[in-house]
Design brief:
2 copies of one chain form a homodimer. Chain A is built from 10 helices and no strands. Chain A starts with 7 loop residues before the first helix and ends in a 15-residue tail after the last helix. Chains A and B meet through helix 6, helix 7, helix 9 and helix 10 of A and helix 6, helix 7, helix 9 and helix 10 of B. Chain A binds a DNA duplex through helix 1 and helix 3.
DNA sequence: CTGCAAACTTGCAGTGACTGCAAAAACCTC
DNA sequence: GAGGTTTTTGCAGTCACTGCAAGTTTGCAG
C-alpha cells in the first residue's frame, strides 16, 4: 500500500466520480436536465456509459451526487454530541455542519444545481428517494439519543423534517440570491423545533427589525 | 349532455382509471413492483399500453393513484375553515379529512399498497415528487391564511411537514397492524405542531390508554 | 522486472419505461 | 345517422439501466 493511504487506484476513482458528477451538473444546467443523455455525460467525462452506471445508480443520483459517506458521518456527529444536547439539537447541528462543509467544498456545483432545480424541483424530491439507508442510520442515532424504541415515530419524523427543511430551503434559495442556504436550512429547522403552530413574524425587506 | 351530469364517456374513463390503478396495485403486491411490466398491467385492465400512459404519467403514479382532485379539495378546505382556526390547524384538519375519506373509499387498495411499500419504501417518496403543483396550491392556501407572502418559508414548510408526516406514518403503519393510519398521521402532525424539541413520552404497549 | 490476482473498465445484447404521431374506434349532438 | 370531438390504439423510436463476459489497469510478491 501507499504511505499516503490513498492508492493510485483510489485517486483515479475519486477523480472519475467527480468528473461524472461535474459533467452531469454542468450539462444539465447548460441545456436542461432531460436534454442531456447519459451517453453525452460519459463522453464528457471520458469514460464509457457502462462506467457511468458503475459509479451512479441513476442519472438523478449523479446530478445530486450524494456523498455516500455523508450518512455515516452525520450519524457519528449525532451520537458523539455532548451529553446535555437534546436529540433534535444534535441532529440540527449535524445537518448544518454537513451543509456548511458541502458548500465550502463545492459551492460552484451547487450554484449550477440551483439552475437545474429551479426548472425541475421534482428532481430534488427524487434525490431523497435514494437515501433511505442514510435516513435509517440517522433515525437510529436520533432514537438512541432520545431513548426511544426503534419503532417509534419520533426519530423518523426528525429525520424526515430535516429532508423537508433542506428541500424547502433549496427551493426558497433558488428564488433569491441574497440568502445563504445554510441560514435558510437553519431557519427551517428552527421552525420545526419550536412547532408549526406558531406562525413566524413577517420580516419586511426595508424594515429595521 | 346526460341529466346525471356524468356521461357514458366519463363513467368509462373513471372505470378505466380505477381498473388500471387496481391492476397495478394488485399485481405489484402479488409478485413485487418491478416484476410487473406496464404491458401486464394494461393487459389485466384490458387496455393497450399506450392507454395506460394516457391515464398515468408513470408506473409509479399508477401505484399510488394520487387523485388529481385531492389538491384542490384540500386547498378549498383550508381556505374555507372557520375564522379562528390557525393555519396549521386548518391544514392538519384538511389532511386528516382527506385521509379518512380515502381510507373509507379504498381501504382494500391501501392494504395492498402497504405490502408493496414495505418492500420498496422509496416508492412512497417518489410518489410525492409528482405532486409539486398540489403542494404549491396548498402552500398558497396556508400562506394566505397566515398572512405571509408567497416567498416565505413557512407555508412551504407546513405542507412539506404534511408529506413527511404521511410518509413516516405509512412506514410505521406498515410495521404493525394494530394502529389506524389516520391516528398515526395525526400523531405525527401533532409532533410537528408542538415542536420537535420536545421529545415525546414513550407509550408502553400494555397501557390501558 | 515478472507474473499473478484483484479491481476496474468496456462493449454488447437485451429489457422495459415512456413519447409523438397518425389512423381507427367510440361517443356525443343534432 | 351525419358530422364533430374524444379516446384508444399501434407503431416506431429514444433512452435509462442491467447482466455478462471479455479486456485493461493496478497492486503486490517473489
Amino acid at each position: 500500500m501507499n504511505q499516503s493511504g490513498e492508492s493510485l487506484r483510489d485517486r483515479k476513482k475519486r477523480r472519475t466520480r467527480a468528473a461524472l458528477e461535474r459533467a452531469t451538473v454542468r450539462l444539465a444546467a447548460e441545456r436542461g436536465y432531460d436534454h442531456v443523455t447519459v451517453e453525452e455525460i460519459a463522453a464528457e467525462a471520458d469514460v464509457s456509459v457502462r462506467t457511468f452506471f458503475n459509479y451512479f445508480a441513476s442519472k438523478d443520483e449523479a446530478l445530486i451526487g450524494a456523498d455516500p459517506e455523508a450518512g455515516p458521518r452525520m450519524a457519528e456527529r449525532i451520537t458523539s454530541a455532548a451529553d446535555g444536547v437534546s436529540p433534535f439539537e444534535a441532529y440540527r447541528q449535524s445537518v448544518l455542519a454537513e451543509i456548511t462543509d458541502e458548500l465550502n467544498n463545492a459551492r460552484d456545483l451547487w450554484l449550477l444545481r440551483k439552475e437545474v432545480l429551479m426548472q425541475r424541483p421534482d428532481l430534488l424530491v427524487r434525490a431523497f428517494a435514494n437515501s433511505a439507508e442514510s435516513e435509517q442510520l440517522l433515525a437510529a442515532a436520533v432514537g438512541e439519543r432520545a431513548g426511544l424504541p426503534e419503532s417509534h415515530l419520533y426519530p423518523r419524523l426528525v429525520v424526515a423534517a430535516g429532508s423537508a427543511a433542506f428541500r424547502c430551503a433549496v427551493t426558497r434559495w433558488a428564488l433569491d440570491d441574497n440568502v445563504a442556504l445554510g441560514d435558510l436550512v437553519g431557519e427551517a429547522l428552527d421552525l420545526f423545533g419550536t412547532g408549526l403552530v406558531h406562525v413566524p413574524p413577517h420580516h419586511h425587506e426595508g424594515g429595521t427589525s
